[in-house]
Amino acid sequence: MAHDLPPLNALRAFEAAARLNSVSQAAEALHVTHGAVSRQIKVLEEHLGVALFVKDGRGIKLTDAGVRLRDASGEAFDRLRSVCSELSRDVSEAPFVLGCSGSLLARWFIPRLGRLQADLPELRLHLSAGEGDLDPRRPGLDALLVYAEPPWPADMQVHVLAEECIGPVLSPHFAGFQRLQGAPAKALLGEALLHTTSRPQAWPTWAVQQGLDPTAIHYGQAFEHLYYLLEAAVAGLGVAIAPQPLVADDLRAGRLSAPWGFSPTQAALALWVPRRAADGRAEQLAQWLRAELARQSA
Fold first, then answer.
1. Are 246 and 177 in the same domain?
2. How many domains does the chain have?
3. What is the pLDDT of residues 49-96, one digit of tens each?
4. Which run of H or of E encompasses 163?
5. Which candidate in 84, 110, 134, 165 could, as Cys together with 99 as Cys, close a disulfide (CB 3.0–4.6 Å)?
6. Which of 53, 86, 119 finishes a domain?
C-alpha cells in the first residue's frame, strides 16, 4: 500500500547517515558495512520515489526531501530511544522475584542472603516460597530456583548451577548414632527411615546407587516438606535423606553427620528463567549462585 511505512532497517540506516552526515560513520555506529548502509538508503529512496542524498564533493548532502525525513525520523528515533531507556530503567529498578521451595529458602538461601546483598547490592531481590506450585511462566515471578531433572523446558533459559548429590544424615542425638557410625549402607535397611511425601523417590534412588534393594526400605515418620524432615533429623528422631547443600551448615556445625557421604542423582539445582523475561539480572544471580555453591563445596 502507498501509505505503508518504509522498511524499518532502511529508515534506521538513513537516520544514522543523516544524523552523522556520513555513510561510513553510520556503518560504524550500526556495526554493519558501508555497502549495507548504502543499499538500505537506496531501498528507502526507491520506496519513497525521491532522492534523499546527493553527492557533495567526496561526501554527501541531504536533499530537501532528505532534510524533512531526517527531522521526522530523528525525532521518532529519539523518542524510541528515550522510551526504551525508561523501560530498561523500570526493569532494573523493579524487584527481581525469585521463587524456590520453602526448604531451600530456609536452609540454604536465607543464611547466605547477607552475603548476596553485599556482593550484589544493585540486585533488589524478592523471595517467594512455595512447594510445587511455583511456575515462572505466571506473572509475578521472574525466575525459579529448583532441583529438577532434564530435559529442560523449551520455553525456559536454564542456568545449571550444580549437580544434585543426596545422602543420609543423622544427629549425634539419635539413639542409634554410635551403632551406625562406620556401619555399611545396608545397615539402614534395619532403620525406620524418615522421609518426605514431596520427594518419595529420594530413598529408593539412593538405595539403588548403593546396590541395595529399594523394596527392603522400612519407612518411619513421613513429613510433608523437606524442611520439617531435616528439623526432625536434627532433633534426633531418625535418619533422613537430603541434598548436600541443604545440610552443609548442619554438618559443619556438628548438628548432623553424613557417615555414607553423598551420591549424585540425575537432577541438578538450576535457575529457570522464562525466555520472554530473561535479563542481565538473572545471569548475574546465576553466576553468584554457582560461585557460592562451589565455595561451599570447596
1. yes
2. 3
3. 999 999 888 888 999 998 999 989 888 888 887 777 666 655 556 899
4. strand 156-169
5. 134
6. 86
